[in-house]
Amino acid sequence: MASAKNSNREGWWQRWRGGADPAEDAALANLDDRGFLTAVYRKYLGREIDSSGKRYYLSRLNTSISRRKLIRAIKNSAEARLYRERQTRVALLQHHWKNQEKQSPLPRLGRYTENNSPHIALIGTCLVEGLLQTALTINWSMQHYLMDSGPHDPVPQLSAEDFDGVLVQLTLRSLLSMVAENGDGDLFHLRADVDWSDLRERACQQLQTQVQRILAALPDGLPVFFLGFLEPMPRINGLLGPNRQHGLYALIRHLNDTLEEALTVRHRAFYLELNDLRLHYGDSTAYDGYVSHFTHGGIRSSRQGDLIHLGILEKVQAALQVLRGDQQVKLIITDLDNTLWKGVLAELDEIIPLEVTEGWPLGYAEALLACKARGILLAICSKNEDITTRENFTKVWGRRLRLEDFCAIHISWQPKSQAIAQILAETNLLPEHVLFIDDNPLEIAEVTHAYPQMRTLSGDPEQWRHLLLYSVETQVAHVSAESARRTELVQAKKQRDAAAENMDRTAWLESLQLTLQVETMTDGTHPRYARALELLNKTNQFNTTGQRWTDAELQNWLAAGGVLLAVSAQDRFAPHGLIALALLQDNAIIQMVLSCRIFGLGIETALLAEAVRQIQADGHEEYQGHFTATGRNDACRDFWHDQGLAWDAEQNLWRGSAAPEWPTWIRR
Fold this sequence. Notes:
The protein has 668 residues and is an alpha/beta fold. The chain is built from 26 helices and 19 strands. The strands form three sheets. Strands 11, 12, 13, 14, 15, 16, 17, 18 and 19 form a nine-stranded mixed β-sheet that branches. Strands 2-1-3-4-5 form a five-stranded parallel β-sheet. It has a five-stranded parallel β-sheet with strand order 8-7-6-9-10. Strand 15 (588-594), helix 25 and strand 16 (623-625) form a beta-alpha-beta unit. Residues 29-80 form the DUF4214 domain.
């Protein structure tokens, strides 16, 4: 979250909402006249003060009008009355929205434990004032910075310490005015001589330039979310006119495609779709293109408009949660009968694939494969005869869904909690990162009793597809090469474990042909930086401190002299990619993490050996190791002791001077 400095600065806002006298409280907070006016405008009008209002009131404050009278005047204005009405409407909508909506655009598989709203910098024109008002109404800390999308409009100078993220809305009409003839960004699309191909190319170039300019001016590491443009109705050229290939509708769709593509290659900037919220809530009274010109691209003050604004804020909060790696699902375990197909196959005289998969099972299978593509593991846990069920699985799904899509398959008559225990051992995952899906509530109860931290899903199977595709816990920011191959890598681990059964440990380790590559990262430009940040925030079991890092925090730490050692591994079964990290600062190893897929191979010892070598090469004879128990990192509780370090109780850290031997079976 943002710094304490920002929280203190926003303190007056929270006290006002609690009923404090604004005139007296502002005086006690030692706000100058400019700060006082900013506070009054945000409190009673829900927006930042405009330049004309600032000039007018600054000239009159403490000469012809007191602060208390100024508050009374603004509080009784027509604009203030409309804002109060909006506050009431939004508050009622939020209650209904949280408690009644069955198909939320971003549902959750469990109770969300984050109680604090993020601190957001909002960049845009007056088009985003409605979003600001909604945010303030639901107690978000949001600061609006007025900025048009022209080439010379200054980007606000922000501090990464004051905000958790930045939300940007580019102004469509301004962007189009820069590329349309004679600066006509409003009505040019109605001219018969428009060269749409040329206009599209120039508009996309200008859009990319604006994105680069904004990102270059914002602090490195601070997540930046760009809202997509509102797309006009497809029938902009009439009922029977050409609507899709040329014209404004096609142009704006292409601009959104270009914006998303431009942001996909950046690890700290993200595209947030806006038009899906219009589809979800309806836009007959939300999109201002029904009453204003199409290129204005705004959201009206209405019930539907407020719901869209709430949806935007939910997306921002969910995106920050995804970036932190909070409460993420890493493994989905599914039942089979009445879960992955209709009915109990063993009781059917004839299996007709279309009859048992058409409808919700096909949608469920689609969602499972979509989750697999995001790097989420799939497993099967079913009470059935093993060989027959595997044969029936292939009959039912053919090549659409395959047994090799699942990293673990347990089909037997043992209690499902026992089978799941074996799956957890094979995948080295903690129960809180697992989702178990079964149609039978008794099976759900049995598994929940054994693993109360595990999330479960049952009930109406027609809801499963939506929950798997859109739940916050199944979202990812980037799919790294390692994530895309996670099923293959777990299967490779099982092959390694199987090979170990018939060999002594020394011979087995030598047979792996394990090779490591160590890279040093000193800033966020390294091509493997995004994967390193992902590993740092997703690793729980071998994580010596459990610390989570935002992009901004890690980049600031690197800029202050920190060094990130990153290890990639490959053995005879598979290339494993980047699987271990050590964070070095002077003579301290402040954190080490190791992927759970490669426990027990000596990679942590090799990484420590290289870390100590670099520390000693920098002139330090002694090095330090840090450990913080998290309740989930018992796998590395004895790591420093086992490597020969001594505990310093006074400093609460481990001390060592000798580097461990590089394991003889590991190549480099």
